[in-house]
Write a structure and sequence with these properties.
Blueprint (H helix, E strand, L loop, with lengths): L1 E9 L4 H11 L4 E8 L5 E9 L2 H13 L3 E6 L5 E12 L2 H13 L3 E5 L3 E8 L1 H11 L4 E6 L3 E4 L8
Antiparallel strand pairs: 1-3, 1-4, 2-3, 5-7, 5-8, 5-9, 6-7
Amino acid sequence: MKHTIAVIVENKSGVLTRIAGLFSRRSFNIDSLSVGATDNPDYSRMTITVQGDKDVLEQVIKQLSKLINVIRVSELAPAESVERELAVIKVSADRESRSEIMQIVNIFRAKIIDVSAKSMIIEATGDEEKIDAIIQLLRQFGIKELARTGKVAMVRGPRVVKA
């Protein structure tokens, strides 16, 4: 089972290395990791996805909570949170395929952010399933390059994961 964890940390050098080291030492695999500053520049927010059962999740949360510079650790339940991912996809595009690619882009409410004589770059945002679906449809044209951010997530409603 995939779990999403929000981690608020001090915005200092070395914090990401310590967290990655913890996962490595414990043989936990990070499926995705997204890090960025919060509204307070003294803190960063990490969104980490990890696979495992309840025991693995509990162990990850306990170990993260013990680290210096970690302020707060919370599991984000899928039903109680909003999750998004960004993908930038470069596909082969000749004159014959451009209109079909544009139709796919429109259906997924994605954007074309660059066009050249032989390729197009598409920006898509959404949940993991939406990103997987648009990538699958674009494969027929030939994906030249692909970059995905990993998941970012936030709790719905009045509850806040903050320092």
